[in-house]
Structures are given as C-alpha cells and as structure tokens.
C-alpha cells in the first residue's frame, strides 16, 4: 500500500525517511513530487508496453563476467525482478533492509535495484572499481545486511572479495558464472553463498508460482511513502573520504523528471548508458529518465570505444553520454569518426569537465547532434543546458540556466520548483551583478535531506536551508545563465590572485596537441601557489610549456593565470564517474 499522506503513514520497523514530514507533505501538495513510488512507475511501464524491448546487457558482458548478454522485454524484466525479489525475500531481506550492490552496468543491476525497491529495501550502490577497503567502510557505515555482486569481473574475483568483507556475518549473493575456486556455479544466474548458516541457494533463475505469489503478497501489504529511503549513494571522494547520500522516491523522480524534460526522452528513445549506475550520473542521467518515459535502456561498461560504437549502430541509439575528451576526439579524428555510425543519435549529454564551444558547435552543425551540458551532484545540484533553453551551441557548451533569472520560463519542470542564488563566499552577500561570481546554493524537491550519520562532520546547508554546493559560478552578461568557474576548494591562490583550474583547462582543451588536461596548484615559497598543467598529449603530438602559454596568450588570458610548469602523463587519474583526482596529481608534484 502506498501512503501519499505522509503525515498519517506509519513507518514499518527500520524504515527511514529522507526529509521532515512537513517538507514531504509540502512537495506533494505543490505537485513538486509525484505521488507514485519507483515500483509503481515501473509497473506502469510494464502495463503500457509489455512486449517492447526494455533493457539490454553490454555486448561484451561475456568477456567481463562470463555471462551471456541478453535483451529483456518489459514483461520479462518484470518477471526477472520478481524472481530476484523472491529469493531475497526467502533469505530475510525485508522492508528497511540495506543491501550493498556492486555490479557492472547490466540487466542484472537494473533488475536488482527494482527487486530491492519492490521489497521496500534500500540499495547502497558501489562502483565495481571499489575494493575491500571501500567495501568494508560502506558495509559498516550502512549496516548492510547483504552484498550483491558478481562472481568475476575480468581477472578479479568480486565474490571472494565480498565474502571476505562479509566475514560470515552477512549474506553474499553473486551473479554467475563463478570462478571454479570461488562460490557455487549456477550458470547465468546468481548464487547466494556462505551466509551466516553457510547455505547456498540459486537466485536469478525462474522461481515457481508460489514464490512469486509470496513476493506479490508481501509487497501489497507494505506501507510505503514517497519519502522512504531507497538508496544511499556515495560522494566522489576526490578531496576527502566519501559521504553517504540517502535518497527517497520523491527526490530521485524529481531529478529524473527535469533530466527527462531536457533530454526529451520518450517511449521511442533508445538510451545508451556508459556511466556506472551508482550515483547521480547513472541514475539521473539514464536509468530513471528511461523508467519515467519508457523506451529501451542499453547498458555499457567500462567505456570501450569499439563496443560503444557497435551498440550505437546495432540498437539505433538516440540518446547517450560521452566525456568531453571523447567529444573532442571524435570531431578532430576523422578516422575514428569513420568507425562509428552516429546517424541515429539525436542527443549527447556531457559534463564533468569544461566543454569546448567549437566542438559543441561542430557536433550540432556537422553531425546534426545536440550536445547538452550537464552539471550535477549526488546532493542535488541538477542543471542542464537544454537546446530549448540555450539554442546557441557555443553558448550552451559552457553555460547553464540560472533558474532565478527574472521573467524567464525554462523548459524543464524542475526549474520553476528550485530556488537558486549565488553567494560571495567571502562576504556572504548574494551576488546579483552581471559578471559576479559566487557559490551556487539551491533549495527544492531535488535536493537531498542530509548526509548519512557518521559519514560527514557537517551538513552542507545554510541558515535558509539552501544546499551549499561548493561550486563557484559566474552570472552571465544578460543575467540569464551561469558559467561554472571551479570548486571552492580547488581555487589556486597565486600571490593573492584567484585562479580557477577549470577555466584554464577549458581553454587548453582547445589546443590541438592536448587530448586531456588538468591544472593543479603546487607550492611556491613566495607566491604561495603556482599553476601546473598536467597534459595527456594527442596521438603523435608533442606539447611544450611555451606552446601552452602561447595558446593562452592568444586568447588574452591574464598573465597570473598562465601555467608555470608542465607535466606530461599517459592518463589522468579519475574517480569512477570521471572526475579528476586532483589530490593524486598534487601529491606527485
């Protein structure tokens, strides 16, 4: 039973809410949250198009895990979700249980989330790149009752790693096939291995009608509100330890609705998801907009260009995401572009690093594909430059809508529901003048309610309840758009002058010899800090510091912002969602 009147619903034991009840009630009454839960949205999609393709595995899944890739229709996905839920239910997973999930993008990952939510359980997703250190910390912080993983991933035995973390105190469910020296092999299904009783049971295969009916009966008796916790995601941890970010049905679907509007995802869309489905990028960028609209979700991981291009051509993908470096590479490298049939693509989302305006223009004018600038965070920042709002690709590359702009109506439903302001981090004053810079703060139905206790020393809200994003933006000349400057903590201070690494990176990314670049500060005994450019050269190119300085001078960049040191590297260190790990770079200087 779904209880939409938050104030009268009685929580089941162990069920936690993400927001104060008065906040949730207000969002529902205003229509800022929809009354349906994620399982109800899924049920609508199954009823509308039961025999249409719903979700497809990565085509290289056999190389990754040994399991054969498959496509499921909405009806088949619904049955698969029920079968997984049946075994979880039989093994003690109930409403309020927290389960750690470490799976690559796949049909299995999609179905596991939906199975947990059908039972009223909470998923705490973890990138497959995490190992014992990260796993054990997350399992302990969330008091997870079980871990769901995969038998093997490449040359790693994830099931064995999970069993070590579980220590005989928690259940471990591992998608097969398994390594012969690890847990029980159940073909393409899942094995539950070495729980507290040492028992083993098949999961993922079809269950009998009686087991399915038990799931339906259990789910029908649940009291659920849209404010119930469904995930605990984790911040990227680029500068410190990751923090737990609880999310509920209401705020996840609010974020997803805004993205769906901006991307124009529809039941006819084919969405190729290359981002790990573990946080804002994967959930809000692909998974939940697909679930809201319907259509076909094609999973991909890790980024493998021949596989990626093959999936676009085979499934006639209409929407996907690419890192900025790949966007640049494709327009500059005709031989690489010739390997890809991009004729079905309509929209490409990108973010995580500055976009090059000429590159975004080329994608639109030469390829007929709109590139959308995304900017988001697990805590609730959700901005995107929809073509309907910013038609000019040169402007859209580096600008985002300023929801507080007077007299402007934006195309996404989230815009009118989100209060936004820029705040000078030194004076605390609200920034209103054009060209002014300040920290982005926002409040609304997409913003989370607070960190998981014990994972953060402070909450990121000001006295008015606005989320302090930690991101510095500049207000455009007409007062309608925002341009990202940099993270507050990443500003380089050279002799009292502030330098935004992201600004310099965006300019250097246009240099033909630069494939990827990061700008970091390094200590200087006189000036405090100076700039170092860490560059991945383009194939066959050589780059010198003088080249980079000349490139920036040609764009009339202030002298104090110029890099004074150059380091060449084969690749930049990034976290699982593609953000540069600047601390690692600084530690090496």
Automatic annotation (TrEMBL):
Family recorded in the similarity comment: Belongs to the ATP-dependent AMP-binding enzyme family.
Segments crossing the lipid bilayer: none
Keyword check for Glycoprotein: no
UniProt protein name: AMP-binding protein
Annotated AMP-dependent synthetase/ligase domain residues: 42-452
AMP-binding enzyme C-terminal domain boundaries: 503-579
Pfam families in the record: AMP-binding (PF00501), AMP-binding_C (PF13193)
Domain of life of the source: Bacteria
Entry keywords, A to Z: Ligase
GO molecular function terms listed in the Swiss-Prot or TrEMBL record: CoA-ligase activity
